[in-house]
């Protein structure tokens, strides 16, 4: 089957592409309640063009038609628009900083609540669970792992990973200060890694859309790494305020290496705990709650 050429990059000769994309995103929101209208345009465009090719379509409007009539296409497009790049102990120095700069501050709390926002398939959540276990405080911690993509959450709930990834994950673990043999935390069957059920006991996986949903608890730590860079300025500000209203005082916020609070409207209420690792502590501000 011959496939028509995909849309060219937006130019003066092709001014309607952005309109088509905006209409498609509007359809996603109005028909399915899925909010991607404030995601960064270059990111959204790349993912939509990929989905057009994968579905063997020729136009953005053709994909929009599928949005109204084909739930399978909707699910696949949502998976494309979700940020699912992750790995265990990604950027090991971040987890090392959590070990040395955050854990000592919260170790004596009677209970600890942590929110992993945009958890994807769960690798960072299990990384945190291992870190907390080795610190001796996992038993009193509840981890809330959320993502917009139900497909990613299904993978996360299973706690399974291809064996081929474990070489780099083991290396990351030791760079992050791991104190055990990493293989103690999983079993292998048919080239698939199954994490210990103990690491899942205190984790709650749930669907949550940072673009539309509200705060659902008060947390001592919020981790949201390499997600906000895909949002436009309006949505970034919304998410920063959402996290601000969800943190205790003091409460710790961990962001991705290309993200930061310096240009947000709440920056004055935070202090940098680890500058290079983008870890902040909330000190004060509107909507604060001492826990």
From TrEMBL:
Read off the InterPro entries from this record.
Bact_Chemotaxis_MeTrfase, CheR_C, CheR_MeTrfase, CheR_N, SAM-dependent_MTases_sf
Q: Which GO terms describe its biological process?
A: methylation
- Residues of the CheR-type methyltransferase domain: 20-261
Reading the lineage from the top rank, the first entry is: Bacteria
What are the boundaries of the signal sequence?
none
A single MF term (Gene Ontology): S-adenosylmethionine-dependent methyltransferase activity
Keyword check for Methyltransferase, yes or no: yes
Indicate yes or no for the key word Methyltransferase: yes
Annotated keywords: Methyltransferase, Transferase
Q: Which SUPFAM superfamilies match?
A: Chemotaxis receptor methyltransferase CheR, N-terminal domain, S-adenosyl-L-methionine-dependent methyltransferases
What Pfam families has UniProt attached to this entry? CheR, CheR_N
List, alphabetically, the PANTHER family matched.
CHEMOTAXIS PROTEIN (PTHR24422:SF8), CHEMOTAXIS PROTEIN METHYLTRANSFERASE (PTHR24422)
Instruction: Return the protein name.
Output: MCP methyltransferase, CheR-type
Which organism is this protein's natural source?
Dendrosporobacter quercicolus
Q: What is the lineage of its organism?
A: Bacteria, Bacillati, Bacillota, Negativicutes, Selenomonadales
């Amino acid at each position: 089957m011959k496939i028509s050429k995909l849309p060219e990059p937006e130019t003066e000769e092709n001014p309607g592409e952005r309109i088509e994309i905006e209409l498609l995103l509007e359809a996603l929101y109005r028909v399915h309640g899925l909010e991607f209208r404030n995601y960064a345009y270059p990111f959204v465009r790349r993912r939509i063009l990929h989905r057009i090719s994968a579905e063997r379509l020729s136009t953005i409007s053709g994909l929009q038609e599928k949005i109204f009539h084909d739930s399978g296409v909707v699910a696949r497009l949502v998976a494309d628009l979700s940020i699912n790049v992750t790995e265990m102990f990604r950027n090991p120095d971040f987890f090392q900083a959590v070990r040395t700069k955050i854990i000592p501050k919260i170790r004596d709390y009677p209970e600890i609540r942590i929110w992993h926002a945009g958890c994807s398939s769960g690798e960072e959540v299990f990384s945190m669970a291992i870190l907390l276990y080795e610190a001796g405080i996992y038993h009193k911690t509840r981890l809330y792992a959320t993502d917009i993509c139900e497909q990613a959450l299904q993978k996360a709930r299973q706690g399974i990973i291809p064996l081929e990834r474990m070489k780099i994950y083991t290396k990351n673990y030791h760079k992050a200060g791991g104190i055990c043999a990493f293989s103690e935390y999983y079993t292998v069957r048919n080239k698939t890694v199954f994490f210990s059920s103990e690491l899942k006991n205190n984790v709650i996986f749930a669907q949550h859309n940072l673009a539309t949903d509200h705060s659902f608890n008060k947390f001592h730590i919020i981790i949201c790494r390499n997600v906000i860079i895909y949002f436009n300025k309006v949505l970034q500000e919304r998410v920063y305020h959402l996290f601000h209203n969800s943190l205790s005082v003091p409460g710790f916020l961990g962001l991705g290496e290309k993200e930061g609070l310096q240009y947000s409207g709440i920056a004055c209420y935070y202090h940098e705990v680890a500058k290079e690792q983008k870890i902040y502590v909330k000190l004060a501000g509107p909507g604060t709650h001492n826990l």
